[in-house]
Amino acid sequence: MTDLIGTLPGMVKSSLESEENKLPVVETRDEFDVEISGTIGKPLVQNAKMSSRNCDVFYGDKQAIFNINLDIGKNEIIAMIGPSGCGKSTYLRVLNRMNDTIPICRVTGEHTLDGEDIYAAEQDPVLLRARVGMVFQKPNPFPKSIYDNVAYGAKLHGLATNRSELDDLVEASLIKAGLFKEVKDDLLMPGTGLSGGQQQRLCIARAIAVDPEVILMDEPTSALDPIATATIEELMDELKENYTIAIVTHSMQQAARVSQRTAYFHLGKLVEVNDTNTVFTNPEHKLTENYITGRFG
After folding, report:
1. Measured between alpha carbons, how far is 195 from 182 in angstroms, rounded to an integer?
2. Closest CA to 3 of 280, 232, 221
């Protein structure tokens, strides 16, 4: 895949040159904008874990997301890419109702987890976020010990009935997050004393500890060095055996390395969703081509 990324612009230009004149160009904000009449590719799947239909998001009177229809498959990693401000992080927060914390934000459409309406009146957002965990761009460990960081959610949701069960849960979560060997002798040390990469894995362990079904990652490696980034990416590949993962990333190389499908967002619209290899070697939409070849973004 590394060799693939190194040759992306040339491969895409060659494979799409014959299609150039078939794509309608309209007068918009720059010469690379083309008409978006609807999502193309494979936005829907048969084994959907989470689904959105006719998703619109508003901040006050301003609309940020326009009519998104997307499935996230069970045990897949889907990467969401696009220029800054295109709506990918806003959409990610729709999936566990993090936008509920913003008073002026309004979300419409149908959003389901295993067919269950996650915006139903009887749905408890706190319990939903236990099922759909989130890892943020900047590591945010609690000002507590490593042990208490991981144990916090389990205690809150009553997932352990005694200290022995809690010990086992903390150890298992740290092992799944690839951190246990590094911290097993320092569990009572502050989580904030870890390195950036270790802190992010601690946050992943904290998310895993409440036994989620889906893990959302909003640029989880943007603040990390290449070695820590590689560790997180290897971890994601292991985690997809047991979890469904949606990741927002500005790194196209990362999207190509870790995901099975890639979704390209542009100005609040979902332009294309396809197998990751297709997106990066033979995208179906001109906007996708322009973005991955570096013409804007």
Report:
1. 11
2. 280
Q: Bridge partners of 50?
A: 72, 113
Residue 234: CB partners within 8 Å, gap ≥ 6?
178
- CA dihedral sign of residues 47, 53, 58, 64: positive
pLDDT in tens, 218-252: 999 988 889 989 999 999 999 999 999 999 999 99
Cβ neighbourhood burial of 41 (10 Å; 0-12, 13-18, 19+): buried
Distance, CA of 170 to CA of 208 (rounded, Å): 10
What the block records as the tokens of 246 is 């949606």
75: left (phi over 0), alpha (psi -120 to 50) or beta: left
User: What's 263's DSSP letter?
Assistant: E
Planar angle of CA 223, 266, 274, nearest 5 degrees: 90
